[in-house]
Amino acid sequence: MGLGVATLWLSLIVLLPLAAVATKSFEKGPDGFWDAVTAPSAKSALTFTLGVSVLVALINVVVGTLIAWVLVRDEFPGKGVVNALIDLPFALPTIVASIVLLSLYGPRSPINVNLVATKPAVVLALLFVTLPFVVRTVQPVLMELDAEAEEAAASLGASNVVIFRRVLLPALAPALLSGAGLAFARAIGEFGSVVLIGGGIPRDTEVASQYIATQIEVDRPVNAAAVSVALLAISFLVLLVLRVVGARAARRH
Question: Measured between alpha carbons, how far is 90 from 97 in angstroms, rounded to an integer?
Answer without folding.
Answer: 11
